[in-house]
Design brief:
heterodimer; A: 284 residues; mainly alpha; 11 helices; elongated; B: 306 residues; 75% helix; flat
Chain lengths: 284, 306
Protein backbone atom coordinates (compact mmCIF):
# COMPACT_ATOMS: atom_id res chain seq x y z
CA UNK A 1 0.00 0.00 0.00
CA UNK A 2 1.26 3.45 -0.85
CA UNK A 3 2.33 5.80 1.95
CA UNK A 4 -0.26 8.53 1.55
CA UNK A 5 -3.30 6.41 0.85
CA UNK A 6 -6.74 7.99 0.77
CA UNK A 7 -10.00 6.13 1.26
CA UNK A 8 -10.43 5.76 -2.48
CA UNK A 9 -6.94 4.61 -3.36
CA UNK A 10 -7.13 2.15 -0.48
CA UNK A 11 -10.44 0.92 -1.78
CA UNK A 12 -9.16 0.55 -5.32
CA UNK A 13 -6.16 -1.37 -4.02
CA UNK A 14 -8.39 -3.77 -2.11
CA UNK A 15 -10.81 -4.07 -5.02
CA UNK A 16 -8.06 -5.01 -7.50
CA UNK A 17 -6.93 -7.77 -5.15
CA UNK A 18 -10.43 -9.29 -5.05
CA UNK A 19 -10.47 -11.76 -7.96
CA UNK A 20 -14.21 -12.41 -7.99
CA UNK A 21 -14.98 -8.70 -8.06
CA UNK A 22 -12.46 -8.04 -10.82
CA UNK A 23 -13.85 -10.85 -12.97
CA UNK A 24 -17.36 -9.51 -12.33
CA UNK A 25 -16.25 -6.01 -13.26
CA UNK A 26 -14.56 -7.28 -16.43
CA UNK A 27 -17.70 -9.13 -17.51
CA UNK A 28 -19.76 -6.02 -16.88
CA UNK A 29 -17.48 -3.80 -18.95
CA UNK A 30 -17.62 -6.36 -21.76
CA UNK A 31 -21.41 -6.49 -21.59
CA UNK A 32 -21.81 -2.74 -21.56
CA UNK A 33 -19.49 -2.50 -24.56
CA UNK A 34 -21.51 -5.18 -26.40
CA UNK A 35 -24.75 -3.38 -25.60
CA UNK A 36 -23.43 -0.03 -26.79
CA UNK A 37 -21.97 -1.50 -29.95
CA UNK A 38 -24.92 -3.80 -30.71
CA UNK A 39 -25.95 -2.08 -33.97
CA UNK A 40 -22.41 -2.61 -35.32
CA UNK A 41 -21.44 -6.00 -33.94
CA UNK A 42 -24.78 -7.81 -34.10
CA UNK A 43 -24.80 -10.06 -37.19
CA UNK A 44 -28.46 -9.32 -37.97
CA UNK A 45 -31.14 -6.82 -36.98
CA UNK A 46 -33.20 -7.78 -33.91
CA UNK A 47 -36.39 -7.83 -36.00
CA UNK A 48 -35.05 -9.42 -39.20
CA UNK A 49 -37.10 -12.55 -39.88
CA UNK A 50 -36.12 -15.50 -42.00
CA UNK A 51 -39.43 -17.33 -41.98
CA UNK A 52 -38.21 -20.09 -44.30
CA UNK A 53 -35.52 -20.97 -41.82
CA UNK A 54 -37.74 -21.00 -38.74
CA UNK A 55 -36.23 -22.26 -35.50
CA UNK A 56 -32.78 -23.65 -36.19
CA UNK A 57 -30.13 -24.81 -33.70
CA UNK A 58 -26.80 -22.98 -33.38
CA UNK A 59 -24.81 -23.06 -36.64
CA UNK A 60 -22.03 -21.10 -38.32
CA UNK A 61 -24.56 -18.66 -39.84
CA UNK A 62 -26.43 -18.17 -36.59
CA UNK A 63 -24.02 -18.74 -33.72
CA UNK A 64 -26.75 -19.17 -31.09
CA UNK A 65 -29.45 -20.41 -33.47
CA UNK A 66 -32.70 -18.71 -34.45
CA UNK A 67 -36.20 -18.48 -32.95
CA UNK A 68 -39.49 -19.68 -34.42
CA UNK A 69 -39.73 -16.62 -36.67
CA UNK A 70 -36.18 -17.16 -37.92
CA UNK A 71 -34.71 -14.26 -35.95
CA UNK A 72 -31.05 -14.52 -34.99
CA UNK A 73 -30.84 -15.23 -31.24
CA UNK A 74 -27.37 -13.71 -30.75
CA UNK A 75 -28.52 -10.42 -32.26
CA UNK A 76 -31.63 -10.43 -30.12
CA UNK A 77 -29.60 -11.08 -26.97
CA UNK A 78 -27.25 -8.22 -27.88
CA UNK A 79 -30.12 -5.81 -28.51
CA UNK A 80 -31.89 -7.14 -25.42
CA UNK A 81 -28.81 -6.23 -23.40
CA UNK A 82 -29.39 -2.59 -24.38
CA UNK A 83 -32.89 -2.60 -22.93
CA UNK A 84 -32.07 -4.67 -19.83
CA UNK A 85 -28.96 -2.69 -18.92
CA UNK A 86 -30.66 0.62 -19.71
CA UNK A 87 -33.51 -0.25 -17.36
CA UNK A 88 -30.95 -1.32 -14.75
CA UNK A 89 -29.00 1.93 -14.88
CA UNK A 90 -31.78 4.46 -15.44
CA UNK A 91 -34.15 3.03 -12.85
CA UNK A 92 -31.29 2.79 -10.34
CA UNK A 93 -30.49 6.42 -11.18
CA UNK A 94 -34.07 7.42 -10.40
CA UNK A 95 -33.91 5.49 -7.13
CA UNK A 96 -30.60 7.19 -6.28
CA UNK A 97 -31.87 10.71 -6.83
CA UNK A 98 -35.01 10.18 -4.74
CA UNK A 99 -33.35 8.12 -2.02
CA UNK A 100 -30.28 10.34 -1.56
CA UNK A 101 -32.23 13.60 -1.44
CA UNK A 102 -34.79 12.11 0.93
CA UNK A 103 -32.12 10.67 3.23
CA UNK A 104 -29.95 13.81 3.30
CA UNK A 105 -32.88 16.08 4.10
CA UNK A 106 -34.25 13.78 6.79
CA UNK A 107 -30.87 13.18 8.39
CA UNK A 108 -29.64 16.78 8.22
CA UNK A 109 -32.69 18.56 9.55
CA UNK A 110 -33.56 15.88 12.08
CA UNK A 111 -36.32 16.41 14.61
CA UNK A 112 -39.88 16.40 13.44
CA UNK A 113 -39.03 16.54 9.72
CA UNK A 114 -36.87 13.47 10.15
CA UNK A 115 -39.46 11.48 12.05
CA UNK A 116 -42.24 12.31 9.57
CA UNK A 117 -40.07 11.46 6.56
CA UNK A 118 -38.81 8.22 8.01
CA UNK A 119 -42.28 7.20 9.14
CA UNK A 120 -43.39 7.59 5.52
CA UNK A 121 -40.52 5.32 4.48
CA UNK A 122 -41.55 2.77 7.13
CA UNK A 123 -45.09 2.75 5.83
CA UNK A 124 -44.03 2.44 2.20
CA UNK A 125 -41.78 -0.46 3.14
CA UNK A 126 -44.81 -2.43 4.19
CA UNK A 127 -46.64 -2.05 0.89
CA UNK A 128 -46.75 -4.50 -1.99
CA UNK A 129 -44.80 -2.37 -4.42
CA UNK A 130 -44.50 -5.00 -7.05
CA UNK A 131 -48.27 -4.89 -7.33
CA UNK A 132 -48.18 -1.15 -7.74
CA UNK A 133 -45.72 -1.39 -10.57
CA UNK A 134 -48.02 -3.92 -12.24
CA UNK A 135 -50.99 -1.65 -11.59
CA UNK A 136 -49.21 1.30 -13.23
CA UNK A 137 -48.24 -0.83 -16.23
CA UNK A 138 -51.83 -1.99 -16.61
CA UNK A 139 -53.34 1.47 -16.33
CA UNK A 140 -50.91 3.47 -18.43
CA UNK A 141 -49.70 0.77 -20.81
CA UNK A 142 -46.22 -0.65 -21.05
CA UNK A 143 -44.29 2.50 -21.74
CA UNK A 144 -40.52 2.15 -21.35
CA UNK A 145 -40.06 5.45 -19.52
CA UNK A 146 -42.93 4.75 -17.20
CA UNK A 147 -41.28 1.41 -16.45
CA UNK A 148 -38.05 3.22 -15.49
CA UNK A 149 -39.90 5.65 -13.27
CA UNK A 150 -42.10 3.04 -11.62
CA UNK A 151 -39.23 0.70 -10.81
CA UNK A 152 -37.04 3.57 -9.62
CA UNK A 153 -39.81 4.85 -7.40
CA UNK A 154 -39.97 1.44 -5.75
CA UNK A 155 -36.28 0.92 -5.05
CA UNK A 156 -35.31 4.17 -3.27
CA UNK A 157 -36.45 3.27 0.23
CA UNK A 158 -33.38 1.40 1.46
CA UNK A 159 -31.14 4.02 -0.10
CA UNK A 160 -32.82 6.78 1.87
CA UNK A 161 -32.31 4.86 5.11
CA UNK A 162 -28.63 4.27 4.43
CA UNK A 163 -28.01 7.90 3.50
CA UNK A 164 -29.90 9.20 6.51
CA UNK A 165 -27.81 7.06 8.85
CA UNK A 166 -24.58 8.32 7.28
CA UNK A 167 -25.66 11.96 7.42
CA UNK A 168 -26.60 11.72 11.09
CA UNK A 169 -23.12 10.38 11.77
CA UNK A 170 -21.53 13.27 9.87
CA UNK A 171 -23.57 16.27 10.86
CA UNK A 172 -22.05 16.77 14.29
CA UNK A 173 -18.48 16.54 13.11
CA UNK A 174 -16.29 19.64 13.31
CA UNK A 175 -16.07 20.37 9.61
CA UNK A 176 -19.83 20.48 9.25
CA UNK A 177 -20.20 22.67 12.32
CA UNK A 178 -17.45 24.94 10.96
CA UNK A 179 -19.20 25.19 7.61
CA UNK A 180 -22.44 26.00 9.39
CA UNK A 181 -20.72 28.67 11.47
CA UNK A 182 -19.39 30.24 8.27
CA UNK A 183 -22.94 30.55 7.00
CA UNK A 184 -22.75 28.00 4.19
CA UNK A 185 -26.18 27.58 2.61
CA UNK A 186 -28.01 24.30 3.06
CA UNK A 187 -27.72 23.39 -0.61
CA UNK A 188 -23.96 23.80 -0.81
CA UNK A 189 -23.67 22.05 2.53
CA UNK A 190 -25.31 19.02 0.94
CA UNK A 191 -23.34 19.26 -2.24
CA UNK A 192 -19.85 20.12 -1.02
CA UNK A 193 -19.66 18.70 2.46
CA UNK A 194 -22.10 15.85 2.97
CA UNK A 195 -22.45 14.19 -0.42
CA UNK A 196 -18.71 13.58 -1.05
CA UNK A 197 -18.44 11.89 2.31
CA UNK A 198 -21.22 9.41 1.72
CA UNK A 199 -20.36 8.49 -1.87
CA UNK A 200 -18.90 5.16 -0.75
CA UNK A 201 -22.04 3.58 0.67
CA UNK A 202 -24.10 5.12 -2.12
CA UNK A 203 -21.90 3.55 -4.78
CA UNK A 204 -22.07 0.18 -3.07
CA UNK A 205 -25.80 0.19 -2.69
CA UNK A 206 -26.32 1.42 -6.23
CA UNK A 207 -24.29 -1.50 -7.63
CA UNK A 208 -26.42 -3.89 -5.60
CA UNK A 209 -29.65 -2.19 -6.71
CA UNK A 210 -28.95 -2.63 -10.42
CA UNK A 211 -29.41 -6.44 -10.40
CA UNK A 212 -32.62 -6.09 -8.37
CA UNK A 213 -33.99 -3.62 -10.89
CA UNK A 214 -33.04 -5.86 -13.79
CA UNK A 215 -34.77 -8.77 -12.07
CA UNK A 216 -37.90 -6.71 -11.62
CA UNK A 217 -37.94 -5.68 -15.28
CA UNK A 218 -37.45 -9.21 -16.53
CA UNK A 219 -40.07 -10.45 -14.08
CA UNK A 220 -42.60 -8.02 -15.55
CA UNK A 221 -41.57 -8.83 -19.11
CA UNK A 222 -41.84 -12.52 -18.33
CA UNK A 223 -45.44 -12.06 -17.25
CA UNK A 224 -46.13 -10.07 -20.42
CA UNK A 225 -46.47 -6.77 -18.58
CA UNK A 226 -43.11 -5.19 -19.35
CA UNK A 227 -41.29 -4.71 -22.64
CA UNK A 228 -43.53 -5.41 -25.63
CA UNK A 229 -42.51 -7.09 -28.91
CA UNK A 230 -40.84 -6.59 -31.34
CA UNK A 231 -38.46 -5.01 -28.81
CA UNK A 232 -36.64 -7.61 -26.77
CA UNK A 233 -35.25 -7.55 -23.28
CA UNK A 234 -33.72 -10.56 -21.59
CA UNK A 235 -37.00 -11.08 -19.76
CA UNK A 236 -39.01 -11.35 -22.99
CA UNK A 237 -36.38 -13.65 -24.51
CA UNK A 238 -36.61 -15.99 -21.52
CA UNK A 239 -40.40 -15.88 -21.77
CA UNK A 240 -40.22 -16.86 -25.45
CA UNK A 241 -37.67 -19.52 -24.62
CA UNK A 242 -39.91 -21.06 -21.96
CA UNK A 243 -42.80 -21.30 -24.40
CA UNK A 244 -40.81 -23.45 -26.79
CA UNK A 245 -38.25 -25.06 -24.49
CA UNK A 246 -39.33 -28.64 -25.14
CA UNK A 247 -38.42 -28.55 -28.82
CA UNK A 248 -35.94 -25.68 -28.99
CA UNK A 249 -33.95 -25.75 -25.75
CA UNK A 250 -31.32 -23.27 -26.96
CA UNK A 251 -33.92 -20.49 -26.96
CA UNK A 252 -34.15 -20.78 -23.18
CA UNK A 253 -30.57 -21.76 -22.33
CA UNK A 254 -28.64 -18.89 -23.95
CA UNK A 255 -30.74 -15.93 -22.80
CA UNK A 256 -31.03 -17.52 -19.35
CA UNK A 257 -27.29 -18.04 -19.16
CA UNK A 258 -26.55 -14.47 -20.25
CA UNK A 259 -28.93 -13.07 -17.68
CA UNK A 260 -27.62 -15.26 -14.86
CA UNK A 261 -23.98 -14.45 -15.64
CA UNK A 262 -24.80 -10.74 -15.62
CA UNK A 263 -26.53 -11.01 -12.26
CA UNK A 264 -23.56 -12.95 -10.89
CA UNK A 265 -21.15 -10.34 -12.19
CA UNK A 266 -23.13 -7.46 -10.71
CA UNK A 267 -23.48 -9.17 -7.35
CA UNK A 268 -19.81 -10.12 -7.13
CA UNK A 269 -18.71 -6.66 -8.17
CA UNK A 270 -21.09 -5.04 -5.68
CA UNK A 271 -19.94 -7.31 -2.85
CA UNK A 272 -16.32 -6.59 -3.72
CA UNK A 273 -16.95 -2.86 -3.76
CA UNK A 274 -18.62 -3.07 -0.37
CA UNK A 275 -15.72 -5.01 1.11
CA UNK A 276 -13.24 -2.60 -0.45
CA UNK A 277 -14.92 0.54 0.84
CA UNK A 278 -15.83 -0.79 4.24
CA UNK A 279 -13.38 -3.45 5.44
CA UNK A 280 -15.41 -3.99 8.60
CA UNK A 281 -18.18 -5.79 6.75
CA UNK A 282 -15.83 -8.28 5.08
CA UNK A 283 -16.92 -10.99 7.48
CA UNK A 284 -20.51 -11.10 6.34
CA UNK B 1 -45.04 -4.76 24.57
CA UNK B 2 -48.83 -4.53 24.50
CA UNK B 3 -48.61 -0.77 23.87
CA UNK B 4 -46.35 -1.35 20.87
CA UNK B 5 -48.71 -3.99 19.57
CA UNK B 6 -51.73 -1.72 19.77
CA UNK B 7 -49.80 1.16 18.22
CA UNK B 8 -48.71 -0.97 15.28
CA UNK B 9 -52.19 -2.31 14.68
CA UNK B 10 -53.63 1.19 14.66
CA UNK B 11 -50.94 2.34 12.26
CA UNK B 12 -51.93 -0.39 9.83
CA UNK B 13 -55.51 0.84 9.44
CA UNK B 14 -54.81 4.24 7.83
CA UNK B 15 -52.20 2.57 5.62
CA UNK B 16 -54.73 0.10 4.27
CA UNK B 17 -57.31 2.82 3.78
CA UNK B 18 -54.78 4.90 1.84
CA UNK B 19 -53.85 1.92 -0.34
CA UNK B 20 -57.47 1.13 -1.13
CA UNK B 21 -58.28 4.76 -1.94
CA UNK B 22 -55.20 5.22 -4.10
CA UNK B 23 -55.85 2.02 -6.03
CA UNK B 24 -59.50 2.89 -6.55
CA UNK B 25 -58.78 6.29 -8.09
CA UNK B 26 -55.76 5.02 -10.05
CA UNK B 27 -58.01 2.46 -11.71
CA UNK B 28 -60.45 5.25 -12.56
CA UNK B 29 -57.58 6.98 -14.39
CA UNK B 30 -57.17 4.02 -16.71
CA UNK B 31 -57.97 4.89 -20.31
CA UNK B 32 -61.10 3.29 -21.74
CA UNK B 33 -64.08 1.88 -19.91
CA UNK B 34 -64.49 -1.73 -18.82
CA UNK B 35 -66.88 -2.44 -21.72
CA UNK B 36 -64.64 -1.29 -24.57
CA UNK B 37 -64.62 -4.74 -26.12
CA UNK B 38 -63.43 -5.63 -29.60
CA UNK B 39 -66.93 -5.21 -30.98
CA UNK B 40 -68.59 -1.95 -30.03
CA UNK B 41 -71.78 -2.11 -27.94
CA UNK B 42 -74.75 0.08 -28.79
CA UNK B 43 -75.20 3.21 -26.64
CA UNK B 44 -78.38 1.83 -25.09
CA UNK B 45 -76.67 -1.40 -24.02
CA UNK B 46 -73.71 0.58 -22.67
CA UNK B 47 -76.05 2.76 -20.66
CA UNK B 48 -77.77 -0.29 -19.17
CA UNK B 49 -74.44 -1.93 -18.38
CA UNK B 50 -73.22 1.22 -16.66
CA UNK B 51 -76.43 1.33 -14.65
CA UNK B 52 -76.12 -2.31 -13.62
CA UNK B 53 -72.52 -1.85 -12.45
CA UNK B 54 -73.33 1.50 -10.79
CA UNK B 55 -70.92 3.32 -13.11
CA UNK B 56 -73.36 6.16 -13.78
CA UNK B 57 -73.17 7.35 -10.17
CA UNK B 58 -70.75 10.10 -9.18
CA UNK B 59 -67.18 8.98 -8.46
CA UNK B 60 -67.52 9.80 -4.80
CA UNK B 61 -70.69 7.73 -4.55
CA UNK B 62 -68.99 4.81 -6.32
CA UNK B 63 -66.06 5.10 -3.95
CA UNK B 64 -68.12 5.09 -0.77
CA UNK B 65 -70.26 2.24 -2.11
CA UNK B 66 -67.19 0.21 -2.95
CA UNK B 67 -65.47 0.85 0.36
CA UNK B 68 -68.48 -0.08 2.43
CA UNK B 69 -68.67 -3.26 0.38
CA UNK B 70 -64.99 -4.03 0.98
CA UNK B 71 -65.40 -3.68 4.73
CA UNK B 72 -68.10 -6.34 4.55
CA UNK B 73 -65.87 -8.56 2.41
CA UNK B 74 -67.62 -7.78 -0.87
CA UNK B 75 -65.23 -6.76 -3.65
CA UNK B 76 -67.91 -6.38 -6.30
CA UNK B 77 -68.43 -8.25 -9.57
CA UNK B 78 -65.73 -9.25 -12.04
CA UNK B 79 -65.99 -7.32 -15.31
CA UNK B 80 -64.51 -10.05 -17.47
CA UNK B 81 -66.25 -13.05 -15.96
CA UNK B 82 -69.92 -12.05 -15.75
CA UNK B 83 -71.77 -13.70 -12.92
CA UNK B 84 -68.67 -14.29 -10.81
CA UNK B 85 -67.78 -11.97 -7.97
CA UNK B 86 -64.24 -10.97 -7.14
CA UNK B 87 -64.74 -12.29 -3.61
CA UNK B 88 -65.66 -15.71 -5.02
CA UNK B 89 -62.55 -15.79 -7.17
CA UNK B 90 -60.31 -14.76 -4.27
CA UNK B 91 -61.91 -17.43 -2.12
CA UNK B 92 -61.30 -20.13 -4.71
CA UNK B 93 -57.69 -19.15 -5.40
CA UNK B 94 -56.51 -18.29 -1.91
CA UNK B 95 -56.32 -21.79 -0.35
CA UNK B 96 -54.16 -23.01 -3.23
CA UNK B 97 -51.78 -20.06 -3.12
CA UNK B 98 -51.65 -20.32 0.67
CA UNK B 99 -50.73 -24.01 0.53
CA UNK B 100 -48.06 -23.37 -2.09
CA UNK B 101 -46.59 -20.54 -0.02
CA UNK B 102 -46.59 -22.67 3.13
CA UNK B 103 -44.64 -25.48 1.45
CA UNK B 104 -42.22 -22.96 -0.04
CA UNK B 105 -41.56 -21.24 3.30
CA UNK B 106 -41.15 -24.59 5.01
CA UNK B 107 -38.60 -25.75 2.44
CA UNK B 108 -36.83 -22.41 2.66
CA UNK B 109 -36.67 -22.44 6.47
CA UNK B 110 -35.53 -26.02 6.88
CA UNK B 111 -32.87 -25.93 4.17
CA UNK B 112 -31.87 -22.32 4.78
CA UNK B 113 -31.47 -22.41 8.54
CA UNK B 114 -29.78 -25.81 8.59
CA UNK B 115 -27.20 -24.96 5.96
CA UNK B 116 -26.67 -21.42 7.26
CA UNK B 117 -26.05 -22.50 10.84
CA UNK B 118 -23.83 -25.34 9.72
CA UNK B 119 -21.84 -23.03 7.44
CA UNK B 120 -21.29 -20.60 10.32
CA UNK B 121 -20.13 -23.37 12.65
CA UNK B 122 -17.80 -24.95 10.09
CA UNK B 123 -16.56 -21.65 8.77
CA UNK B 124 -14.06 -21.72 5.89
CA UNK B 125 -14.48 -25.45 5.28
CA UNK B 126 -16.22 -27.20 2.41
CA UNK B 127 -19.39 -27.27 4.52
CA UNK B 128 -19.29 -23.48 4.37
CA UNK B 129 -18.18 -22.90 0.79
CA UNK B 130 -20.42 -25.35 -1.03
CA UNK B 131 -23.78 -24.34 0.50
CA UNK B 132 -22.87 -20.67 0.14
CA UNK B 133 -21.99 -21.15 -3.52
CA UNK B 134 -25.34 -22.87 -4.07
CA UNK B 135 -27.02 -20.01 -2.21
CA UNK B 136 -25.37 -17.54 -4.59
CA UNK B 137 -26.86 -19.50 -7.48
CA UNK B 138 -30.26 -19.40 -5.79
CA UNK B 139 -30.05 -15.64 -5.50
CA UNK B 140 -28.81 -15.07 -9.04
CA UNK B 141 -31.08 -17.46 -10.93
CA UNK B 142 -34.53 -15.86 -10.99
CA UNK B 143 -37.65 -17.90 -10.24
CA UNK B 144 -38.92 -17.61 -13.80
CA UNK B 145 -35.75 -19.28 -15.02
CA UNK B 146 -35.38 -21.80 -12.19
CA UNK B 147 -38.93 -23.12 -12.68
CA UNK B 148 -38.65 -23.91 -16.39
CA UNK B 149 -35.18 -25.42 -15.87
CA UNK B 150 -36.50 -27.75 -13.15
CA UNK B 151 -39.40 -28.69 -15.43
CA UNK B 152 -36.98 -29.37 -18.27
CA UNK B 153 -34.76 -31.58 -16.11
CA UNK B 154 -37.16 -33.44 -13.80
CA UNK B 155 -40.33 -33.24 -15.85
CA UNK B 156 -39.28 -33.63 -19.46
CA UNK B 157 -35.81 -35.23 -19.51
CA UNK B 158 -36.02 -37.57 -16.50
CA UNK B 159 -39.84 -37.85 -16.54
CA UNK B 160 -39.85 -38.08 -12.75
CA UNK B 161 -42.44 -35.46 -11.85
CA UNK B 162 -45.52 -33.89 -13.47
CA UNK B 163 -44.77 -30.62 -15.27
CA UNK B 164 -47.98 -28.76 -14.39
CA UNK B 165 -51.12 -28.77 -12.28
CA UNK B 166 -51.88 -28.76 -8.58
CA UNK B 167 -53.36 -31.70 -6.71
CA UNK B 168 -54.34 -33.73 -9.77
CA UNK B 169 -51.34 -36.01 -10.25
CA UNK B 170 -49.25 -37.42 -7.45
CA UNK B 171 -46.17 -35.33 -6.90
CA UNK B 172 -47.31 -32.34 -8.89
CA UNK B 173 -46.90 -30.11 -5.85
CA UNK B 174 -43.18 -30.81 -5.52
CA UNK B 175 -41.70 -28.78 -8.38
CA UNK B 176 -43.75 -25.61 -7.79
CA UNK B 177 -42.94 -25.63 -4.07
CA UNK B 178 -39.22 -26.11 -4.67
CA UNK B 179 -39.18 -23.45 -7.37
CA UNK B 180 -40.82 -20.93 -5.08
CA UNK B 181 -38.84 -21.89 -1.98
CA UNK B 182 -35.35 -22.12 -3.47
CA UNK B 183 -34.52 -18.41 -3.65
CA UNK B 184 -35.73 -17.94 -0.07
CA UNK B 185 -33.71 -20.88 1.15
CA UNK B 186 -30.71 -19.10 -0.34
CA UNK B 187 -31.46 -15.77 1.36
CA UNK B 188 -32.22 -17.45 4.67
CA UNK B 189 -28.99 -19.47 4.49
CA UNK B 190 -26.98 -16.28 4.03
CA UNK B 191 -28.85 -14.40 6.73
CA UNK B 192 -28.58 -17.16 9.30
CA UNK B 193 -24.89 -17.66 8.54
CA UNK B 194 -24.22 -13.93 9.00
CA UNK B 195 -26.34 -13.71 12.14
CA UNK B 196 -24.72 -16.80 13.69
CA UNK B 197 -21.19 -15.58 12.95
CA UNK B 198 -21.94 -12.32 14.72
CA UNK B 199 -23.39 -14.02 17.78
CA UNK B 200 -20.77 -16.76 18.05
CA UNK B 201 -18.05 -14.17 18.70
CA UNK B 202 -19.82 -12.65 21.67
CA UNK B 203 -18.89 -12.95 25.31
CA UNK B 204 -21.98 -14.80 26.47
CA UNK B 205 -21.16 -17.63 24.10
CA UNK B 206 -17.65 -17.85 25.52
CA UNK B 207 -19.21 -17.90 29.00
CA UNK B 208 -21.60 -20.65 28.01
CA UNK B 209 -18.71 -22.70 26.66
CA UNK B 210 -16.56 -21.93 29.71
CA UNK B 211 -19.16 -23.22 32.10
CA UNK B 212 -18.93 -26.54 30.30
CA UNK B 213 -22.09 -26.69 28.23
CA UNK B 214 -21.98 -29.09 25.33
CA UNK B 215 -21.45 -27.50 21.95
CA UNK B 216 -24.94 -28.56 20.93
CA UNK B 217 -26.48 -26.74 23.92
CA UNK B 218 -24.41 -23.63 23.20
CA UNK B 219 -25.59 -23.52 19.61
CA UNK B 220 -29.23 -24.44 20.07
CA UNK B 221 -30.02 -22.70 23.31
CA UNK B 222 -27.79 -19.64 23.23
CA UNK B 223 -26.50 -18.81 19.78
CA UNK B 224 -29.52 -19.56 17.63
CA UNK B 225 -31.92 -17.40 19.56
CA UNK B 226 -29.94 -14.29 18.77
CA UNK B 227 -28.40 -15.42 15.53
CA UNK B 228 -31.71 -16.09 13.84
CA UNK B 229 -33.33 -12.72 14.52
CA UNK B 230 -32.40 -11.51 11.01
CA UNK B 231 -34.26 -14.53 9.61
CA UNK B 232 -37.39 -13.69 11.58
CA UNK B 233 -37.32 -10.06 10.43
CA UNK B 234 -36.82 -11.27 6.88
CA UNK B 235 -39.94 -13.44 6.93
CA UNK B 236 -42.35 -10.48 6.81
CA UNK B 237 -40.92 -8.94 3.64
CA UNK B 238 -40.48 -12.48 2.29
CA UNK B 239 -44.26 -12.88 2.24
CA UNK B 240 -44.48 -9.97 -0.20
CA UNK B 241 -41.79 -11.61 -2.30
CA UNK B 242 -43.58 -14.97 -2.15
CA UNK B 243 -46.63 -13.29 -3.55
CA UNK B 244 -44.70 -12.00 -6.54
CA UNK B 245 -43.10 -15.42 -6.84
CA UNK B 246 -46.53 -17.04 -6.85
CA UNK B 247 -47.45 -14.93 -9.91
CA UNK B 248 -44.58 -16.56 -11.77
CA UNK B 249 -44.80 -20.07 -10.36
CA UNK B 250 -48.56 -20.34 -10.82
CA UNK B 251 -48.21 -19.09 -14.38
CA UNK B 252 -45.44 -21.56 -15.22
CA UNK B 253 -47.13 -24.57 -13.60
CA UNK B 254 -50.68 -23.54 -14.54
CA UNK B 255 -51.89 -23.57 -10.95
CA UNK B 256 -55.36 -22.05 -10.45
CA UNK B 257 -54.29 -19.88 -7.51
CA UNK B 258 -54.66 -16.24 -6.66
CA UNK B 259 -51.38 -15.28 -8.32
CA UNK B 260 -52.46 -16.56 -11.71
CA UNK B 261 -55.86 -14.89 -11.39
CA UNK B 262 -54.07 -11.65 -10.70
CA UNK B 263 -51.76 -11.91 -13.71
CA UNK B 264 -54.68 -12.86 -15.94
CA UNK B 265 -56.71 -9.96 -14.61
CA UNK B 266 -53.80 -7.64 -15.35
CA UNK B 267 -53.39 -8.99 -18.89
CA UNK B 268 -57.19 -8.87 -19.52
CA UNK B 269 -57.53 -5.47 -17.85
CA UNK B 270 -60.24 -6.81 -15.54
CA UNK B 271 -60.22 -3.66 -13.42
CA UNK B 272 -62.50 -4.76 -10.59
CA UNK B 273 -60.52 -7.97 -10.16
CA UNK B 274 -57.23 -6.02 -10.06
CA UNK B 275 -58.68 -3.55 -7.59
CA UNK B 276 -60.02 -6.26 -5.30
CA UNK B 277 -56.90 -8.41 -5.33
CA UNK B 278 -54.60 -5.41 -4.83
CA UNK B 279 -56.49 -4.40 -1.71
CA UNK B 280 -56.55 -7.97 -0.52
CA UNK B 281 -52.81 -8.52 -1.14
CA UNK B 282 -51.98 -5.27 0.63
CA UNK B 283 -53.98 -6.29 3.66
CA UNK B 284 -52.17 -9.64 3.78
CA UNK B 285 -48.74 -8.06 3.45
CA UNK B 286 -49.40 -5.43 6.09
CA UNK B 287 -50.66 -8.19 8.37
CA UNK B 288 -47.63 -10.45 7.90
CA UNK B 289 -45.21 -7.55 8.29
CA UNK B 290 -46.91 -6.75 11.57
CA UNK B 291 -46.52 -10.35 12.77
CA UNK B 292 -42.87 -10.54 11.81
CA UNK B 293 -42.12 -7.17 13.43
CA UNK B 294 -43.75 -8.27 16.66
CA UNK B 295 -41.96 -11.63 16.58
CA UNK B 296 -38.54 -10.02 16.21
CA UNK B 297 -39.38 -7.53 18.96
CA UNK B 298 -40.29 -10.41 21.21
CA UNK B 299 -37.08 -12.30 20.37
CA UNK B 300 -34.84 -9.30 20.95
CA UNK B 301 -35.35 -7.96 24.48
CA UNK B 302 -33.15 -4.94 23.85
CA UNK B 303 -35.57 -3.50 21.32
CA UNK B 304 -38.63 -3.96 23.51
CA UNK B 305 -38.34 -0.60 25.23
CA UNK B 306 -37.81 1.42 22.07
Amino acid sequence: MSKNSSLWSDAIYRLTRNKAAMIGGGILIGLIACALLAPWIAPYSYSYQDLDLGASPPSSDHLLGTDILGRDLLSRILYGARVSLLVGFVATGVALVIGVSWGIIAGFFGGRIDSIMMRIVDILYGLPFIIFVILLMVIFGSNLWLLFGAIGAVEWLTMSRIVRGQVIGLKNQEFVLAAKAMGVSNFSMFKRHLLPNILGPIAVYATLTIPQVMLLESFLSFLGLGIQPPMSSWGTLIKDGVESMEEYGWLLIYPGLTFTITLFALNFFGDGLRDALDPKTTDN
Amino acid sequence: MLAIFIKRVFMAIPVLLAVATMTFFLIKLAPGGPFDAEKAVSPQVLKNLNAVYNLDASEWEQYTDYMSGVIQGDFGPSFKYPGRSVTEMIASGLPITFELAMYAILIALVIGVLSGVLAALKRNTMLDFIPMAIAMIGICVPTFLMGPLLVLIFGIQLELLPVAGWGQLSGDKILPSITLGFAYAAYIARLSRGGMLEVLNQDFIRTARAKGLTERMVVIKHAMQGGLIPVVSFLGPAIAGLLAGSFVVETIFQIPGLGRFYVEAALNRDYTMILGTTIFFSAMIVFFNLISDLASLWLNPRSRDV
